[in-house]
Amino acid sequence: MRHVVVVLLAVLCVCDAVKFGQLCKGNPTNSRRTSDSWGQGHYGAGRGTRQHQGLDIVCSDGSTVYAPFDVTLNGNVKVYTDPNKTTINNGINLSGEGLCFKLFYVLPDRTSGTVRKGQRIGTMLPMQRVYPGITSHIHVQMCDKSDPARYFL
Ligand SMILES: *[C@@H]1O[C@H](CO)[C@@H](O)[C@H](O)[C@H]1NC(C)=O
Ligand SMILES: *[C@@H]1O[C@H](CO)[C@@H](O)[C@H](O)[C@H]1NC(C)=O
């Protein structure tokens, strides 16, 4: 019995150990968007009739975006259908460390291949033009729509 518990704990610790490295230049700790006039940045925050399905990490417009760990690029992602938001309507689907996730509001340098941790993957789009006064941010969304917070410090 004791062996089973030890093995289970070891497995859980491996899963929990996956943490995102720095995503955005100028934000080495992946600090999160808290609250601004447009809403809150945590998973589950209200978005009109919907709920926020990601976690928002602070990133200034035009900043370099980095691979948070060794990743495979799985193609580009469109965030909106609204033509008024074309300026920031881009993102990328990534996988690595056993996780599949998407980063919104990022213009990717490339959309296939692999990138090592800390290397650039793209540029933060000009979010202030679409949402004046918002805390500009990268939206991190897991492909399975679960809460990304456990993968951040
Ligand atoms: C992201 O890429 C993965 C791997 O190719 C794929 O299984 C998944 O469906 C993609 N998700 C979205 C939302 O594009
Ligand atoms: C786009 O912006 C125009 C001008 O502000 C507005 O009239 C229109 O309703 C907007 N479209 C959508 C889909 O929000």
UniProtKB/TrEMBL annotation:
Annotated residues for binding of Zn(2+): 52, 56, 139
Skewed-composition ranges (Polar residues): 28-38
Residue pairs linked by disulfide bridges in the UniProt entry: 24-59, 100-143
GO molecular function: metal ion binding
Organism field: Anabas testudineus (Climbing perch)
InterPro entries the record matches: Dup_hybrid_motif, LECT2, LECT2_chordata
Superkingdom of origin: Eukaryota
Region (Disordered): 28-47
Family label: Belongs to the LECT2/MIM-1 family.
Keyword Disulfide bond belongs to the record: yes
Signal peptide stretch: 1-17
Protein name: Leukocyte cell-derived chemotaxin 2 like
Phylogenetic placement of the source organism: Eukaryota, Metazoa, Chordata, Craniata, Vertebrata
Keywords: Disulfide bond, Metal-binding, Signal, Zinc
Xref: Gene3D superfamilies: Glucose Permease (Domain IIA) (2.70.70.10)
